[in-house]
Amino acid sequence: MRIAELSQTTGVPVPTIKYYLREGLLPAGELTSPNQARYDDRHVQRLRLVRVLLDIGRLPIATIRDLLTELDRPDPDVHEVLGRALPATVGTRETSDPAMLEAAHERVRLLVRQRGWLVSDNARTRQSAAEVVAAFAQVGADVEHLLEHYADLVERIAVHDLRFVAQAGDNEGRLHAAVVGSILGDSLLAALRRMAQEHESAKMFGIRDDNC
Amino acid sequence: MRIAELSQTTGVPVPTIKYYLREGLLPAGELTSPNQARYDDRHVQRLRLVRVLLDIGRLPIATIRDLLTELDRPDPDVHEVLGRALPATVGTRETSDPAMLEAAHERVRLLVRQRGWLVSDNARTRQSAAEVVAAFAQVGADVEHLLEHYADLVERIAVHDLRFVAQAGDNEGRLHAAVVGSILGDSLLAALRRMAQEHESAKMFGIRDDNC
DNA sequence: CAGTATGGATAGTGGTGCTCTCCACTATTG
DNA sequence: CAATAGTGGAGAGCACCACTATCCATACTG
Residues B153-187: pLDDT tens digits? Predict the structure, then answer.
């Protein structure tokens, strides 16, 4: 398969594919001569994955490159990917109030301790969670109740996520499933949550099912 | 309070505040003379909210403006906000394969029907959910099981979300809580989910709690 | 053998979220 | 009562990011 066919199959313009090749999001095709290369199904798959991580996951190119590099490691391990690469896909920000952030960190540490979660201490996810907790405080919202209930529910979500990962055949498939499930799962959960919120709100504040 | 104090209190640079004023993210201060204005606590609150929606929620300026405009409507109604304004905060994309997208839409319609969710038919959240379902299909992942379990769990999440909204004192507070809870809630859930995934993975694939 | 496609490289583009500069004017300080 | 600093407002400029366009020597295609 040459680049034009790869482009047609995936719907990604040829210049964009070239750009991804330059950026290391896509491995180079097998060179048959100095300026001819062949691409195969793996390139199609990878390209689709990149597009989905970009469009749905809204991950920056650099993050996607790191994630794919992790997937392509010689000794790929699902737990490693879940523990090291995927945490980089949650955003961080520089919070204004250091004291508030430290309090939020302490709150997250407490949560992790009480739940007995086996989460590495330097985990970026802790940082991210603390930042969100601090953000709630900064806009004057009390996140306390939400935090406990959310923790309950994400535990169950994670069980299904890991089941989703485990069901994939080989190790490579599991890595793929871990990435896809985590990134797309966020978006799926967000969309479903909005619908469930609308439904719950309809039940709560007078039902207007005129267009449902 | 003048602009310098507003800037110091919130940590937002003065030129950025001026930019937000131009963009309509922040209402103008009360003019005391042609080139002097006074700002108050409401500006501080609003500015913090804007920063949090930008930094944590990663919403575009235009979306934030629309959201805040909705909050400032004369007859603010929580269900309206949850049903109209907040759905705009989930992304959309132009999918390559129309047939796949239509199948995904049908799947989402079925889900909504089976759950009896009262969700408006044209809802943007449906579009978004369908896009994610199509994305799963596009990368060759079977979302079927995940979908049912996620639907179960977001129903419970939404119950807590609405409780979070209801607990806020007045109507204005509830609108604020709905926005904050929805947007920041997404990020909080994502961060907690990553931690729960790491924990679940640690339990599943050999426990290495050396640094937990 | 004419015309199109290719890999590779470099430069340019459009959108976004600021940031800088300027201006006439106002407030504050010594 | 200066001198200095700060202000609202408006326009231009900037940095980053994800592309997109152009060019070239070479290779495939009809």
Answer: 999 999 999 999 999 888 889 999 999 999 999 99
Contact status, residue A68 vs residue A25, Cβ threshold 8 Å: yes
| Burial of A3 per CB tally in 10 Å (0-12, 13-18, 19+) | middle
CA torsion, ordered A87, A19, B56, B136, to nearest 10 deg = -60
SS3 A112: helix
Q: What is the pTM of this model?
A: 0.94
> Is there a contact between B199 and A55 if contact means CB atoms under 8 Å apart?
no
8 A C-beta contact, residue B94 and residue A194: no
Alpha-carbon distance of B17 to B9, in angstroms, equals 12
**Which residues of A fall within a CB distance of 8 Å from B140?**
45
Helices A61-71 & A171-204 angle (0-180, nearest 10) = 130
Binding-face residues of A in 28-47 toward B, CB within 8 A: 45
* CB-count exposure of residue B185 (10 Å: 0-12, 13-18, 19+): buried
